[in-house]
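Posting this for the archive.
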Amino acid sequence: MTAERWTRAVREQLGLGRLLPLGGPRDGVWIAEAAAETALRRAVRMVGGVRLGALRIALADPSGAYEPAVPPPPSGLPPGPLRVTADCAATASEPLPAAASRLREALAAAAQGVGLAVTEVDLRVTALLEGEPEGADEAGGGLGERERGPEPPSATAPDRPAREGDELRVGVAALAVPGVTGLTSALGRSVRIEERQLTDLALPRRHVRVELAVSADHRALDVARRVREAVTTALPDHPTVTVLVTALR
């Protein structure tokens, strides 16, 4: 099994889903699809007359993706416009296009609130509801157990106490940024420092990948940008930095 296939298998087992780009090609930030989906479901749970079903986030046009400014996390998608595809059920109390339009607008606003560059929201109405959806809850918007989106991955538990030296400095700098709720270790280590040959002509340069959780009350992209700045300035050689957000709490 290749390293990429192994990484993909690990992500699927942990329930992370794809590693989606946040922001643009120069932002150097990625987010687990499961975390992004949880945020979108939470944001639209109060949209009346509709019930959200299966939801998927992917590149709108893989051929139009950009080259990232820093190395992505293992098998992370390249930066580019994203598409949200979702199934939904709606009541007959209003025309279906009107209900779908409200849900589409809510999903687009929620994506913007996280920092996802969503340019398309495709909805498919799969059922008609006899009345208003009942039992809406924070995570699933009233979905039944089989329809509900994935829970935040258990592998986003806080990483064990930080190591020594530069990894410790990186962890301290990241945790000091407002909105960071903890370091996580879904891909093995919360802080990974290695040397990278970014171009054929450049000298090797250290690169840092930081994995963390962000408060649901903060915009994930803005927090991650500040983490990149804090980590870059925390080390004397000012390495390049990639941030992976694995949970929104």
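The two ends are 34 Å apart (CA to CA). The longest helix spans residues 96-114.
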